[in-house]
Amino acid sequence: MENKWAIILGCSTGHGAAIAKQLATEGYGIIGFHLDRGSIKKDAARLQEEIASLNSNRVKFWNENAADKEVMFSKMEEIKTILDNGKVKLLMHSIAFGSTTNFFNPTPVRQRQMDMTQHVMAHCLIYWTQALLENNLLTSGSRILGLTSEGSYKAMEGYGPVGVAKASLEAVVRQIGWELGSQGITANTIQAGITPTRALTKISTDWENWVERTKERNPMKRVTTPEDVAGLVSLLLNDKADFVNCSTIFCDGGEHRSL
Predict the structure, then answer these.
(1) What residues pair up with 183 in beta bridges, in sequence order?
(2) Residue 21: CB atoms within 10 Å
(3) Rounded Cα–Cα distance for residues 249 and 108 (Å)
(4) What domains can be seen in the chain, in order of their start residue?
(5) Could you tell me the pTM of the whole model?
(6) Where are any strands of DSSP class E within the chain?
(7) Which pLDDT tens digit goes with each residue over 32-69?
(8) What is the DSSP pairing of strand 29-34 with strand 59-63?
(9) CB neighbours of residue 2 within 10 Å
């Protein structure tokens, strides 16, 4: 078996979990970070067990803050040991954690909320990429992917800080791909459509109506699923996608083209 690995930041539920399972079935080792408590922590443990059954136990999860640089750098030696001379084929940013509020009313966003959201949902990908490069864990053919949304260019209730972070993530990924493309390392964002995940329920109490309205306006008359996104990630890891770089790729059934 080829010694290929994926590092997934935000792996316990939703898109991250689906990507982890999909790649495990394709022979990838999975290193995952999540930050969960209570029942979700148990869900993450069950997911790790499922992945272990799919890829001969080539899996390691940490329930720690992947956006914390101290956590990041403290894990590098252990990651190298786990990889056992393998390389990171995929660095996937799937962290969905930020302040869901408006800039002004009813509760004005605070600077610390903006700073935290930007760092967790965008800037930390820079430092992860730096750390993997410094430790010689990325190579030609490696992919760096992030998940964006319509909120990167549309304004919506309660999405201000996250929308700014998504726009920032797209800029971060473009720059990574521009700087590392000559090394054969590519970086892209995936724009999924409205997906009924745990993260969506945190954005708005009106999320069920969002889902129903999305079904009406989506040309394919359904919402996006985490498995749709996982399938696209799998395609992008193929060598035939080596020239796809610095781009935003839509995985939404055409939703972004509809009013």
Answers:
(1) none
(2) 19
(3) 33
(4) 4-250 (3.40.50.720)
(5) 0.94
(6) 4-9, 29-34, 59-63, 87-93, 143-148, 186-192, 247-251
(7) 999 988 888 899 999 999 999 999 999 999 999 999 99
(8) parallel
(9) 9
Length of the chain counted residue by residue: 259
How many angstroms separate the Cα of 258 from the Cα of each of 3, 143, 167, 214, 215? 42, 30, 20, 10, 11
173-198: string of b/e by CB count within 10 Å (b at 16+)? Answer: bbebbeebeeeebbbbbbbbbbbbbe
Tokens 């403290």 sit on residue: 74
Q: Scan for tokens 């969002």, then name that residue.
A: 210
Give the Cα separation of 183 and 137 in Å (integer): 13
201 pLDDT higher than 70: no
What is the rounded distance in angstroms from the CA atom of residue 5 to the CA atom of residue 43? 22
Task: Compute the half-sphere exposure of residue 191: CA atoms within 13 Å on the CB side of its CA.
Answer: 19
Question: What is the C-alpha to C-alpha distance for residues 33 and 17, in angstroms, rounded to an integer?
Answer: 11
- In DSSP terms, 4 is beta-bridged to 87
Q: Which residues contact 157 (CB under 8 A, 6 or more apart)?
A: 102, 204
* Side chain identity, residue 10: G
